[in-house]
Amino acid sequence: MKGEVRKYVLIDTCFWIALFKPTDPFHNNAKEILAQIDRFYFRLPWPTLYEFINTKLVTTPSRLAQFTRVMASPGIIREDDTKYRERSLRISIERTSSDPALSLTDSVIWLMAEDRDLRVDYLVSYDNDLRASIAPNRGIEILPTQMPLL
Fold first, then answer.
1. How far apart are CA 34 and CA 18, in angstroms?
2. Residue 1, burial from CB neighbour count under 10 angstroms (0-12, 13-18, 19+)
3. Cα separation, 128 vs 149, whole angstroms
4. Residue 57 has pLDDT above 90, yes or no
5. What distance in Å separates the CA atoms of residue 1 and residue 145, rounded to the nearest whole number?
6. What does pTM read for this prediction?
7. Measuring CA to CA, which residue among 99, 90, 139, 87 is closest to residue 118?
8. pLDDT tens digit string along 12-47?
9. What is the pLDDT of residues 90-99, one digit of tens each?
10. Taking 90 as the threshold, does the pLDDT of residue 129 lie above it?
11. How does strand 40-45 pair with strand 122-124?
């Protein structure tokens, strides 16, 4: 890592779901990404945490302990979504029929990816609508690059 510039990874909720659900088809991919956390900064939009941290997680001590360890990593950045909230809401509810259907959380992620003042080198998402909505000219690599056939 010495001399290497850390890259910034924007993390979608589905990453957490895959990481903590061994039967998820993306579980191994999520584990591979997490294993490299010391090489990256993980940008975690607050809405993804709201979506993921639910009763099932907090009432399962082993999963909660694992999540707590991950959140304590120095590479974790809990990204404030305040400046994206109002526009995200409008994107989610005022879309036209030709626009991709993005949840409120996905709209926040989309706006963060489009924000030229927020460094994002990679997006980790298993959501095809979100993946397709990220402009390729922004220079963001979308992981995994190959989606398994489900």
1. 11
2. exposed
3. 12
4. no
5. 23
6. 0.87
7. 139
8. 999 999 999 999 999 999 999 999 888 899 999 999
9. 988 887 666 7
10. no
11. unpaired
Would you say residue 147 has pLDDT above 60? no
**What are φ and ψ of residue 89, in 5° steps?**
-60, -45
Q: Which two tokens stand for residue 69?
A: 């360890």
Question: Which residues, including other chains, have CB under 8 Å from residue 28's CB and lie 6 or more apart?
Answer: none
Residues 6+ apart with CB under 8 A from 65: none
Kindly list the structural domains of the chain, giving each domain's residue range(s) and its CATH number in brackets, ordered by start.
7-143 (3.40.50.1010)
Q: ω into residue 45 within 30 of 0, thus cis? A: no
| Region label for 95, one of left (φ > 0), alpha (ψ between -120 and 50) or beta (otherwise) | beta
Check if the beta carbon of residue 126 is closer than 8 Å to that of residue 146. Answer: no
Minimal CA–CA distance to 8: which of 85, 122, 124, 149? 122
